[in-house]
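Fold this: Serpin domain-containing protein
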Amino acid sequence: MMVLHEKLNIGYIEDLKTQILELPYAGDVSMFLLLPDGIADVSTGLELLENEITYDKLYKWISKDTMVEDDVEVYIPRFKLEEYYELKPILRSMGMDDAFSKGQANFLGMSERNDLFLSEVFHQATVDVNEEGTEAAAGTGGVMTGRTGHGGPQFVADHPFLFFILHKTTKSILFFGRFSLPKN
């Protein structure tokens, strides 16, 4: 478990019995963690929460009406998630065929050569949370590590939780994931 003791934004979503915590990164990027009080189903325990999530609700939950800054003691597991997606079949199924055809592709806005075409398109995403902080693709954030006795709120992620990484200026969700098997 990674232990943090820091002033952070924390809130509680009463109707879902879920804590929400913001871990700020550099600039306007933050990781938000959604931690249900308990697990109500037999799979990962997150389905009830996932079924309630909408874009509008996420923004309501991270608002100043829900979250307040407090001196929080945080316990979260170390984890690293990596995913690789081949996008060529998906893009082709959406009608983007010309870009993959040598005779049809047109990339003259990028190069004077007229024989360019795409052979593959892929996306790779990584989220790494450890004692040095958290890293998501090219975005990095550091947090203070250590433990002190305190009477403020605690955020103990010792059971499944959801997380998302948000660029707050553009309101763009950069990553969204679930952590189902925390280990102490």
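Residues 137-150 have pLDDT under 50 and may be disordered. The first strand starts at residue 2 and ends at 13.
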